[in-house]
# Entry
Amino acid sequence: MIYAITLMFGPYEMMKRSLEQFDKTVGLGDDEFQHILVDQHYPILRESIKSLIAERGEIKNTLVVDPGKNIGLANGVNFALKSVPLTNDDLVILFDPDMNPITVGWGRAMKSVHQEKSVAWTTCLFDGAKSDMNQIGKGFKAVTINGIDCRKIVAPVINSCCMLKASFLIASGGAHESNPYYGGFECHMWPYLVKNNLSWVFLEDYWEDCSWPELRCQNYAEYKVATTHGGEKQVEFTEWVMEKEKKRMLERKRATEGWCPDSKAIRLYDLILEKKPKVIVEIGVYGGQSLVALAAAAEQIDDAKVFGFDPYNDEECQQYDLNGSKIDHGKIDWVEIERKARETIAPYKKTKLFSLPGAYA
Ligand SMILES: C[S@@+](CC[C@H](N)C(=O)[O-])C[C@H]1O[C@@H](n2cnc3c(N)ncnc32)[C@H](O)[C@@H]1O
# Structure
């Protein structure tokens, strides 16, 4: 049996297209492989991801497993493998949902290379690996296995879509990585290859990059950059994404004007994520200091919408004290305040700001 494991993380549309590519190109017979989707509880657009998992779960030979939270690459793989009756004769495909080969038949080609006993790991050769191989100490030897041109590497390089012998994973005690959240899988597995005199080869002709960078969301791209392959982040994943977004929101808030200290912005942000409202309305936006907190949090909730209203006009905004006297706020440049508010919330697609005369129409 060939088990293909996909850890489900990333924006919905990107994963959807990627998995459709997988269906088209892997090229193995139906009965000889099973796709295992691991629900890693990726926090961005969680509801959409859940529906994609449900859709994909309906497809023949697809199994969905759920470790309950993001447990990283190695543990995600191990969790998936524990859910099936794995034997030494099986093969395991690791298929990332963000970047994948589009050459038809890559799975079959890998399977054929795995007929060679000493090969424990095959990967479709992609640009990132090529540049790693070109660096000193990360060279390779050209070999042909079962008619397929390969590069046998002499030191670990970055991995992507690959197939591993289950016997290798079993002998190694499962997959390992140095960083619990997607880091150093290649380097950590390398000693097990060396110890058992096994090789890792890259298939020359089975990759054309398909990564849909336009579909990656910002959080996701940054997360990958910060933690994969030698990154230093070791916090719980969900918390990390949320903290990152909160920090960015606070920076934007501080760059504009208003009455919203950090503590209030954080409280608003957390409250929105806790209550997950679909419609959020702010009356009285000024420079957008509090609106930006609502807007940033709403981005992370499926189908949420934020509406801000402000007249941006002296007459409409006149305040009175309890004795009915006008409060003098001094001269306010409303045009500039409104411009700042709009600039502040511009990155947030789910947020709309209404000013007069449209505001109360
Ligand atoms: C004290 S500021 C608060 C700004 C923002 N919420 C913050 O925390 O930074 C009050 C805002 O309410 C707006 N405002 C006053 N009367 C309003 C009304 N009737 N409808 C909507 N906004 C109003 C003013 O233009 C001003 O921008």
User: Anything to note?
Assistant: The chain has two domains: 2-228, 237-354.
